[in-house]
Amino acid sequence: MQGGKLGLGEGTALYIGAVLGPGVLALPALAAAAAGPASVVAWAGLLALSIPVAVAFAALGARFPDGGGVSTFVSRAFGARAAACVGWWFYAGVPVGVLAGAMVGGSYVAEALGLGGGAGLVGAAVILAAAFAANSVGLQLSGRIQLALMALLVLLLVVATATAAPHAAAAHFTPFMPGGWTSVGSAAVVLFYAFSGWEAASHLSAEFHRPKRNLPLATGMTLAVVSALYIALSTVTIAVLGPAAGRSDVPLMLLMERGFGSGARLLTAVAAVCLSFGAVNTYIAGAARLGAALGRDGALPRWLAKGGSAGQVPRRSLSLQALLTAALTGVVAVAGIELDPLMRATSAFLAAVTAAGMAAAVVLLPRRRPLWWAAVVAVGFTVVVLLFSGRLLALPLVVAGGAVLYARQRPASAGRAAEETPSTTSTRAPVGSGRS
Description:
This protein has one domain (8-417): Amino acid/polyamine transporter I (Up-down Bundle). Helix content is 73%, strand content 0%. The protein contains 17 helices and no strands. The longest helix has 33 residues, at 80-112. Residues 412-436 have low confidence and may be disordered.
């Protein structure tokens, strides 16, 4: 199967942008505030457990490339109703997540330029507008832009870590776990935002040229790059900044200032824009294609389905995402909602999506093979993260209720039309078949 036009380089850049993302700008501080130096345990644990998630999603995407992403996999494993709930989780979570990501980038730019907090939200709006504009042109051009930005970003992060490392102090790791093991779990919940790009990238599987070959390669290269950067950056942040790591909104800027001095502010702003745009760009691309797939399958209004084929631009779904994101931005501006609750809400949605996707992998992948065992481990991992989400679990439950109510209220003619529309999500694979 040849698939779409997205090459290995552009696809890898989109994957790195989704998984690395702007979380690396703020999450070291949020995790350090929750667990102190022990936050490095949460980083390492989530990194290790994200490997089975990544390889399972790569296996599913290579077998069943479709814009529906996780929703497609769940449909094949558990049926259309479950797929609709999962699709709604991701579609509803993306406006929250991309706003949070853009806010991180905007706050860094505002800090670097010495501007107030209001300027940070303006910067976030500019990043969002640029990402929506890039996606409206087409994914191939968007991927090329991201490839250049990710190369610059990786270089900046490597240099920042290397130049700050000589300022490390062993004393900054004591006391190591001031809040106990539960604090590590709390840190893991917010850090899940940093490891949750795989389900977003799954919606791009049909856009890859030769997905069976290129999608696993892109996944492997992304894992290598992200693993090295996360481990190095999280450890050096604690070692160099100590308690200050949990008290700053801009820990990467503090880190770069140790290595470069005051001139680091401009470099940090550039890194912030690259990180934020990369993640926002990929999530928007995934959500736009998911909306078209859900419209095609009857889980959302059918007018959203236009432009959902590989290589096309789903502008109606993209426009709806833009409207939802703009409305949420207005609410955040008026209510003064801060970054942490937005990231935790996003993590709750994405953990629910990932858990459903991994459960589908257990059903669809060949049993008792290495990939199947990876999916089993990933299910347990994401369920634990969900349990630590606490009251935020109400968010995916409410959205799932909305999906069920929509399915019941939908006109019978729409339901018949959805059933008659050829779709890769409409055929359920035999248990453990692993067909391609």
